[in-house]
Amino acid sequence: MADNNLLTVEIERMGQAGDGVGRMPDGRLIFIPGGLPGELVRVRVIETRKNFARGALVSAKRTVPTRVAPVCPIFGQCGGCAFQHWDYGAELAYKENRVREALTRIAQVNGDLVEAIRGCPDPYGYRNKGQFPFGGTRGKVRLGLYRRGTHEVIGAAHCAIQDPWVNELLQVAEDLVNRFRIPPYDETQRSGILRHLLIRSSRMEQKLLALLVVTEPHPELASLAEAIMAAVPRVAGVGMNVQPAPTNRVLGERTVCLAGQDSLIDSILGLRFRMSYTSFFQVNPGQVEVLYRAALNFLPGGPSEVWDLYSGVGTLAALAAREARWVRALEVNPEAVHDARENFALNHLTNVGVEVGRVEDVIDAWVKRAADPPGTVIVDPPRAGLDGRVVERLNVLKPGRIIYISCNPDTWARDVGRLSPHFQLMQAIPVDMFPRTDHVEVASWLARSS
């Protein structure tokens, strides 16, 4: 009997989520995980909507030379990697073209301003932070990753894109948890203790921090923390974060150290930065130096004032302070501001200050108080890009240049277009911060129009 849900589809291009994109017989787009541009595949239609459909790849009638064997046994199941089945050079070409196409289509700006993408020397083993959910039952706990699009935990004793030191701890943590028989959290029953294990590594110190995210304190957690440190000497500290709420938000408000130290130090471009259990830090330490070096090269020569409007823990503000006369930073998260001030002190920087506030709420007052516009404004906003009020104020302020770092080519291109009456894009450099995923970063600068 014929399966009416089976189709033969030619993959025309790669979609932004890492799915191959083809067309149904009626012309609707169909998104196919695992399909590569140029391939002819048999697909089972699993979801249909008014304007598109989703399909599952059944077999390939024609493959392309850029298809490679994934290195991970659960590739295609977990929601982490999108491109392990694609040659890394092809992945880089796709990401570079994605930035160029967004600039041309959305901003109506010449795509030739986009330079060649800066790829990662090794597309595996680069992440210095891992977040692993607990699943299973008491005594039979699984520690791993979520199945794509679900909260089902797939056991994973090794993640190909994680730092080998992170995997070193991941490989023994599951056994230790089962030895102490602490129950995992069951979100359907809203019962159990263990929710997530967060691991981060310091390239400079060659040490690890581990954080157990739990619904409530448990009498065996301190002993488990000691056992983790004994089993993996590279672990410098183990903490506990309490998240009692039935929510997808991983971290709760309360974090305490159970054993060892509560932070590590890592370096970026010669400066040192503190990483606590929960503080933000870029997850690819090698490529963040490529990204930030590009951004710093966009600064004008000579001392001037710099504003960093989405400063996080102050990494780029601190680096810019080595070149600028004064750096004024702004960050919405009070914990990140605390970390930023510690990082400035750690590096003996006295020409940089940071305030707490939302950019869209504070920038108007900053602009009104400014006797002269700063030489440079640095923006590294969330994926949604710049709020319209921020764009409006920047167009009024007219700093000498804007350095724009983005994790979303579409909103970046939109903002380049919105700034274009007063600023002209001069240079854009894509950087592959997250190899084997569909994410790409852009470092760019815009000059004030004469």
UniProtKB/TrEMBL annotation:
Active-site positions, per UniProt?
Answer: C407
Its EC top class is: transferase
Q: Does the keyword Transferase apply?
A: yes
Q: Which Pfam families match?
A: TRAM (PF01938), tRNA_U5-meth_tr (PF05958)
- An example Gene Ontology biological process: rRNA base methylation
Going by the UniProt record, its keywords in alphabetical order are: Methyltransferase, S-adenosyl-L-methionine, Transferase
PANTHER family from the UniProt entry: RNA M5U METHYLTRANSFERASE, TRNA (URACIL(54)-C(5))-METHYLTRANSFERASE
**What protein name applies here?**
23S rRNA (Uracil(1939)-C(5))-methyltransferase RlmD
**Organism per entry:** Sulfobacillus harzensis
